[in-house]
Amino acid sequence: MAESAAVEFRIDRRSGVATYLQIVQQTKQALRLGVLEPGDRLPTAREVVEATAINPNTVLKAYRELEREGLVEARRGLGTFVRRTLGGAAGASASDSPLRTELADWARRARSAGLEKDDVSALFTAVIDSTYKGDQDR
Question: Which of 38, 46, 74, 119 could serve as 115's disulfide partner, Cβ 3.0–4.6 Å?
């Protein structure tokens, strides 16, 4: 049996985001960051249930959504496997990329300047929204 990829789902019951969507979002983030790569097996529904105490149908719903989007494929009796990755330019999301290093440096400077995590998140989101303004029309 293939070993599960090193992805652990964290469920925030107070977030207001549906549990299955949290799994979908966290999987997509892992794909963008290179934590998950094509061929990796996602944790089984049973493994996710044991780690998070959520309903197995919730896990299956998330996996079906990822499959619908063409990101994973279920192989009967074997598990659910990553089909493709997400992200922009090759290597741009790698953990050792120059962009990630610059962003990490910036985040440390923001923290040293006294900004809280929510402040940094709001600032980053505002800059991203401003930078990509109008891209939705393309």
Answer: 119
Structure tokens at 36: 């998950």
Q: Show pLDDT as tens, one digit a residue, over the chain (138 residues).
A: 455 567 899 999 999 999 999 999 999 999 988 889 999 999 999 999 999 999 999 999 999 999 999 999 999 999 999 999 887 544 455 566 788 789 889 999 999 999 999 999 899 889 888 888 876 555
CA gap 7, 11 in Å, rounded: 13
Burial degree of 82 (CB within 10 A; 0-12, 13-18, 19+): buried
> How far from 46 is each of 16, 21, 39, 50, 60, CA to CA, in Å?
24, 18, 20, 6, 10
Bridge partners, 79 (sequence order)? 75
How large is the C-alpha radius of gyration of the chain?
Answer: 17
Q: Under a CB-based contact definition with an 8 Å cutoff, are residues 64 and 73 in contact?
A: no
Using CA atoms, how far apart are residues 49 and 20, in angstroms rounded to an integer? Answer: 12
